[in-house]
Amino acid sequence: MKWILFFGALIGPSICGREKFFGDQVFRINVRGGDEISKLSQLLNSDNFKLDVWKSPSTFSHPVDVLVPSVSLQPVKSFLKSQALQYSVTIEDLQALLDKEDEEMQHNERQERSNNNFNYGAYHSLEAIYHEMDNIAGEFPDLARRLKIGHSFENRSMYVLKFSTAEGRRRPAVWLNAGIHSREWISQATAIWTARKIVSDYGKDPAITSILEKMDIFLLPVANPDGYVYTQTKNRLWRKTRSLNSRSPCIGADPNRNWNSSFAGAGTSNNPCSEVYHGPHANSEVEVKSVVDFIQQHGNFKCFIDLHSYSQLLMYPYGYTVNKAPDAEELDEVARCAAKALASLSGTKYQVGPICTTVYPASGSSTDWAYDNGIKYAFTFELRDTGHYGFLLPANQIIPTAEETWLGLKTIMEHVRDHLY
Ligand SMILES: [Zn+2]
Q1: pLDDT for position 17
Q2: Which of helix, strand or coil describes residue 217?
Q3: What is the pLDDT of residues 345-396, one digit of tens each?
Q4: Which residues pair with 316 in a beta bridge?
Q5: What is the Å distance from ligand 1's center to 329 Cα?
Q6: CA of 39 to the centre of ligand 1 (A)
């Protein structure tokens, strides 16, 4: 007991209050074809095993990643064996990875406090990200402004950075969205790095300079602030919002199934305990509604890009139907060029395609909503990695990820710049 108290005092309150995953593992299960998918779905839908699906089954024989709690390891292994499903263990010791990440974060916080410098190669608290947004706006007052677009369910501010060289005029605009799923930390980290990159490269890099001569960029680094805080204080693997449900003790809705685009369709759940619960109605999540209101009020967005993790995919509409989007050919071409530019830095391979047929059906997603509301250039990135770390990408991969992603983002924005409509 004494040890626990002593140890707790040493490593601070955040890790102590957080849910532990001792002995839990992440399995990668290989599925080939419909028969195996239906067998696997039986396992995933069973309440008995308390599984957390990290990467859902798709119709296209991609492997499925599942967090298996220690108590379910034996029964799940037996089930997989009995059904002749092949699997491997991708994360042997989940808690060890979490401990390492937490230790690194706290070490970095101490360093940043002493040298007063934001380290872009580290994960940060919401407060630190907001503070850095403020710093950027303060350092580049002619280029960047921090705007409050609303608040979260638990009343945290939602801030965007607006990059503009023509204050006052309503130019065509790009929306960069990050962190809608709170556990996908590489997304928020890539976003804040991108903010710094834009202000540092403006006037030096002809591409970003010319983009900003024609368009404004709005960047929302933390689209789900309550969820993000929750991942740092209670459960690192929290995905949804933190809103209360009137008909269930389960908390939150999936904010990327809550947009008004084929709401409650394929790839969502009406069970508030599900990770893909769509919420009671479209825009029920105030975080989603804030973005929708802002974009509609502005009325001149031409591009919407949502950053997620993980899997290394670059996708475009639709998610809610297998039907081709009217602009599918152009979007596919742009995405292929962006993926090529991204890969040129260190060879990171991305798969390109429409959401529905590249991963799985997903209705009520941000990208489909953007597209259906006249924002033609709508894309979703699933950033690094491909499963070795899943959502727990080590901080030393933040800058390499952000740098390569920037090449992809720039390629898309240059295309938008040259094809304004
Ligand atoms: Zn996501």
Answers
A1: 82
A2: strand
A3: 999 999 999 999 998 899 999 999 999 999 999 999 999 999 999 999 999 9
A4: 354
A5: 24
A6: 25
Residue 256 Cα to ligand 1 middle (Å): 7
167 is catalytic: no
Hey, CA dihedral for 196, 415, 403, 236, is it positive or negative?
Answer: positive
**Is the pLDDT score of 12 beyond 50?**
no
User: Annotated catalytic residue: which of 382, 403, 404, 414?
Assistant: 382
Per-residue burial over 317-348, b if 16 or more Cβ lie within 10 Å, else e, is bbbbbeeebeeeeebbebbebbbebbbeeeeb
Pairing of strands 313-316, 377-383: antiparallel
Cβ-based neighbours of 12, under 8 Å, separated by 6 or more = 106
Please say if the pLDDT value at position 297 is more than 90: yes
**Ligand 1 mean position, distance from CA 259 (Å):** 14
317 CA distance to ligand 1 centroid (A)? Answer: 15
pLDDT per residue as tens digits for the range 144-178 = 999 999 999 999 999 999 999 997 789 999 999 99
pLDDT tens, residue by residue, 115-132: 999 999 999 999 999 999
What's the CA gap between 278 and 284, in Å, rounded? 9
- Residues lining ligand 1 (ion), CB within 5 A? 181, 308
Q: Are strands 173-178 and 86-91 parallel, antiparallel or unpaired?
A: unpaired
